[in-house]
Design goal:
Number of strands: 12
Radius of gyration: 32 Å
Order of helices and strands: EHEEHHHHHEEHEHEHEHHEHEHEHEH
Helix content: 40-55%
């Protein structure tokens, strides 16, 4: 398809220009009135398929010519017009259209689908161009990168800001736009390096189903690999089987473990594990969700003098991430553990949350294997998980 922008003093004039160059098959794609600072008038963007362009007279046309050769048959056209032409050529009429074979109808349907897809793609491209600032919207590479970020689930306001900031950086300092975008994202991410600086008492908080118990086991194995002694306490007596699950894991890893249902039992467990390098505390997800339950849970935190890690799955929506972080910060939150990267196809919502809220990334869990899929979070690893 050929696309061109036309400008004239008024609507009839610009319409005549389009008809003169593109013919009656032209499709109007956009229209706007130009402000005085741009000279005034009307601007239209029109498009037409190459095969529908009006034939231009060649040089010398109108002069006496040699006898014409046999006419060249027109180039076959795609789409429904091609189908009808083929049927007429075969001696069929519109009344006999129902006699068309199934294969003919399927071919006609595929042709229609392709043309509709092309038109849809064109409309989407134009819409995304308009989302960028006028300075950048004529850059196909920027439009393509913007669309790619949107496809990951990144909100449009973040995608536009990142693309335009990366374009400015590339213009000023050189390099590929995407490389500049990655550097921009890296500069916005905060990392809490807890590899050798874990607090003595660390509680895991987060919504139900985030993977807190599994994360506790992964953290225990992580600490053991660094030569630290580890013990586990669970306050999650609300979820059926949670305590039994942690007890089984602790037995496999050789950890001390206690299930606590009240403040007295917690005090006894903390005293029992006083000699451990790290005490990991599992908390119930339902207590995290409700305000009154969080206040009660906060009493346990104060008693244990514990720091908190927020555990959240990678597939959460940006608003849910923000709500979870706000709740976690009532518990002396020191970092974020992102789990279940293997259960989501896009990380755009997480990227928007990290850019907007700036939590400190602590650990990533990218799969079920603790030794291979759990580890320290880095900005580079997140960008690779997000953009590939």
């Amino acid at each position: 398809m050929k696309i061109k922008r036309f400008t004239a003093r008024d609507l009839p004039s610009v319409t005549n220009m389009i008809k003169a160059e593109f013919g009656l098959a032209a499709v109007i794609l956009s229209q706007r009135e130009l402000p005085p600072e741009e000279g005034g008038g009307v601007e239209m963007t029109a498009g037409v398929r190459e095969e529908d362009l009006p034939r231009r007279p060649e040089a010398g046309e109108g002069q006496p010519q040699a006898p014409e050769a046999a006419p060249i048959p027109p180039k076959p056209r795609a789409g429904p017009a091609a189908g009808l032409a083929a049927y007429r050529q075969a001696g069929r009429t519109a009344a006999g259209f129902g006699e068309v074979s199934r294969r003919d109808l399927e071919a006609l349907g595929e042709s229609l689908s392709r043309e509709i897809g092309e038109l849809k793609e064109l409309i989407l491209d134009l819409a995304h161009r308009q989302s960028l600032s006028e300075k950048w919207r004529e850059r196909p590479d920027l439009v393509s990168l913007y669309r790619r970020l949107l496809a990951t689930g990144l909100p449009s306001e973040h995608a536009r800001a990142l693309v335009e900031q990366a374009a400015e950086s590339a213009l000023a300092w050189g390099g590929e736009v995407e490389d500049n975008l990655r550097r921009t994202v890296r500069s916005k991410l905060r990392v809490a390096d807890l590899s050798f600086n874990l607090p003595k008492r660390l509680a895991l908080v987060g919504p139900s189903g985030a993977g807190k118990t599994t994360t506790l086991v992964n953290l225990a194995a992580f600490c053991r690999q660094r030569g630290l002694t580890v013990a586990a306490i669970t306050l999650d007596t609300l979820r059926l089987g949670a305590a039994e699950q942690l007890t089984q894991y602790a037995r496999i890893l050789g950890l001390g473990v206690r299930v606590c249902q009240n403040h007295q039992e917690l005090a006894e467990a903390l005293e029992l594990f006083e000699s451990s390098d790290v005490v990991l505390i599992d908390t119930p997800g339902r207590s995290f969700q409700k305000s009154e339950s969080r206040q009660e849970l906060n009493v346990y935190f104060n008693q244990a003098q514990a720091s908190a890690l927020l555990v959240a799955p990678a597939g959460l929506k940006e608003d849910d991430f923000s709500s979870a972080l706000a709740r976690a910060r009532t518990f002396r939150e020191i970092g974020l553990v992102v789990t279940k990267f293997d259960e989501t196809e896009t990380c755009g919502s997480l990227a928007g949350f990290l850019i907007a809220e700036s939590p400190r990334l602590a650990f990533f869990s990218t799969g079920p294997k603790a030794s291979e899929d759990f580890g320290i979070a880095t900005a580079e690893k997140f960008i690779e998980l997000w953009l590939g």
